[in-house]
Amino acid sequence: MVGYANHAGGGFRRAVAHQLPVAGSAGPDMSLRRAAILIVLAAAVGVAASLQFGGSDEIPESGPPIVAVSVPTSLSAQARLGQKSYDANCAACHGQNAAGQDGIAPPLVHIIYEPGHHGDESFQRAVAQGVRAHHWPFGDMAPVEGLTRRDVAEIIAYVRELQRANGIR
Ligand code: HEC
């Protein structure tokens, strides 16, 4: 039994020894290189997939301003309060300084929203009830929750002061 085991072991060792020179010179090297190539390929596929799927499915969260707004040098106390509410509730869509965001929502500093065309009550209605898209290709505006009429009056004061500073009155 022992002899047989020895024989078998020797045979195995001989077989390995026979392959070793080949494996030793090219084998480990090749498999390392193959592993490296696989890792690079996997990374490339990953990058390509994230570019393709991430890129096309992404909803833009901000766009460039639609109009250039001159910011007034000073705001009334009411408008300063309105600016805070505006920044917290409206700027995500209507943009900083109500300059609009391309692809998202219109500028409120715009001749369309001059007091004679969109009076203060249309702002109150927009916030309380939302707006069905009609002037722009950006879709509907949902009602904005959690604002009192007084909050909205402050936002209107802010927007009107921005409008006046830009020749819209
Ligand atoms: C989720 C995005 C979004 C938010 C947030 C948002 N709006 Fe709008 N708003 C829009 C879009 C889009 C329109 C354009 C609808 C159209 O095509 O006329 C609009 C239109 C308006 C109008 C025009 C209403 C009319 O009668 O035509 C006013 C006024 C307005 N928004 C005020 C506000 C105020 C004030 C806030 C914050 C309290 C606000 N919006 C928050 C997207 C938004």
Task: Please describe what this structure looks like.
With 169 residues, this protein is mostly helical. It folds into 2 domains: 2-57; 77-165, Cytochrome Bc1 Complex, Chain D, domain 2, CATH 1.10.760.10. Helix content is 59%, strand content 0%. It is built from 6 helices and no strands. It has helices at residues 2-25, 27-57, 77-89, 91-94, 120-129, 149-165. The longest helix has 31 residues, at 27-57. The radius of gyration is 34 Å and the shape is elongated. The model is unreliable at 1-18 and 45-57 (pLDDT under 50). Bound molecules: heme C. Heme C (HEC) binds next to helix 4 and helix 5. Heme C binds next to helix 4 and helix 5.
How would you sum up this structure in a few lines?
The chain is built from 6 helices and no strands.
Please identify the top-level CATH class of the largest domain.
Answer: Mainly Alpha
Largest sheet: none
Low-confidence stretches: 1-18, 45-57
Bound molecules: heme C
What's the overall geometry?
elongated
What average pLDDT do the residues reach?
A: 80
The amount of beta strand, in percent, is: under 5%
- The strand count comes to 0
By secondary-structure content and strand pairing, the structural class works out as mainly alpha
Report the C-alpha radius of gyration, rounded.
Answer: 34 Å
Based on the coordinates given, report the CATH architecture of the largest domain: Orthogonal Bundle
Structurally, the number of domains stands at 2
Distance from N terminus to C terminus (CA atoms, Å) equals 108 Å
**Helix percent band:** 55-70%
Q: Name the CATH superfamily assignment of the largest domain.
A: Cytochrome c-like domain
The number of helical segments is 6
